[in-house]
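Q: A reviewer asked whether we had any structural model of the full assembly, not just the individual parts. We don't, so I'm hoping you can provide one. Inputs are below.
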Amino acid sequence: MHRSAHIDTFARDRLPPAEQWPELLFELPALQFPERLNCAGELLDAWVDKGMGDRSCLIGARHRWTYAQLQGEANRIAHALVQDMGVHPGNRVLLRGGNSPMLAACWFALQKVGAIAVATMPLLRAKELGQIIDKAQVSHALCDAALSEELVRAQAEHPVLQRIVHYHSEAVDGLEALSANKPARFQNVDTASDDVCLIAFTSGTTGQPKGTMHFHRDVMAICHCWPPHCLRAAAGDVFIGSPPLAFTFGLGGLVLFPMSVGASSVLLEKATPDVLLAAIAQHRATVCFTAPTSYRAMAGQVAQHDLSSLRKCVSAGEALPAATRALWKETTGIELIDGIGATEMLHIFISHDESGARPGATGRVVPGYQACVLDEEGQVLPPGSVGRLAVKGPTGCRYLDDERQRSYVLKGWNLTGDAYLQDADGYFVYQARTDDMIISGGYNIAGPEVESALLAHPAVAECGVIGQPDEERGQIVKAFVVLRSGHEAGPELARQLQDYVKATIAPYKYPRAIEFLPSLPRTETGKLQRFKLRQP
Ligand code: 3UK
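A: Here is a predicted structure for the entire assembly that you could use as a starting point for your response.
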């Protein structure tokens, strides 16, 4: 590894041992990284240096900044971090806030001072914040004043967090006050390309959260793989979307990717489907990032909004049902770009462009990555067989001090925990999370396939399918269904839905039990919480 700029070596000291790392691939010409690299220099300062500082960069409810203005803000905050807060290179600094230009400025300031950004989801409570503070030994925090309460409560239990400074604040000790009179120039810390620059915690549904560590070069690597090959956005694009910047889907899609091409991005603090639709029209957005359920919800309301500016729509976080792809295309004319990514991989590694879309498939491996399907022993399976998805590329899993590293990496491959098959054309077809496969009467059934079938029925707004314990069959397929307005729950409709599934996919996969619910349990990243549906 290269000479670190970190004075506080906590992160590097807790990287997994070399033999537990996934194999890394740097074959693409764009992935030849120098020894010294700071991602803020590449994504932000470089545009100002090239004379493009006047281009529009970030747009939010309170601020509308050009590249030069964002650089000025980030530089002043960087001075405040060093002079007023005593942040040293390698310190972990927690970020808490809804998406906004200020949150992004804080993120770049942390990169500039060589600190490690630990961005957290706005909905987290004191207990969950405490687990993160503890695990990453967070010493400082920058927090939206409106979200202060839970973080202050967490600090009381975890004194390792020495100092919280609030932004979006008029307080005399708030971030705006501290940074106001600082110089607009800052000499970035000369970080190594393999210095840890962010720790992203997984949105895991159970157990202790896992911290995934990523380097300055990883941030640049994801900008060179999926965006130029599948998204192909340009400097004139206006990005928009819902995922929080604490979710690496959002960090990439709403900050890193637009800035890597000199485009602009609209950052919304809370982007529910109706807010997102209105904002697309208001800002004439051209590229949208959100989850499959959000596209489904938006499709029902597009008529009230002018979406004529929109040209590219990206779906990730969960499998995209073919019915949702078809619905979005019918209502907007736009072919969704699906992509599977993971916090451990930082961003998307299997995807396609608009012309390569195949309903029901996630796509092909993104240039820069390799992927295959493995059996239980780690042998590569032939096309058509269902097994464990395995991937490697320039980014990969490095958990912070965590035994679970051993189960994520096998023979140099990252195992995402997904069951997939690869078809003869190289397309990867999602089945289920490996621990969500349903085994009923000796058959393996993938819940999402049953969900896709149900979603095509006009009465179904949303649904989730799980295996329910059953004495006779081991498990039976059970569907939880949220109805569209105007449809009445009851045994009659349940029977219709069962017949509908039997007529669409192999009859043994039909849901033997159906329960109607007003809504489904989801994480802040839009994922269905199947474990909650399984609880009796
Ligand atoms: C599932 C998908 C089918 C899959 C993420 C884009 O979701 C992201 O990261 P997470 O760590 O979850 C990873 C898991 O989510 N998944 C994500 N996308 C798809 N399943 N089709 C998809 N298109 O189980 C995966 O293992 O929260 C997504 C970019 C960055 C990300 N962190």
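A: Points you may want to mention in the reply: Residues 67-83 form the longest helix (17 residues). Residues 202-203, 248-249, 316-320, 338-343, 347-348, 362, 416-418, 430, 433, 525 surround 3UK (CB under 6 Å).
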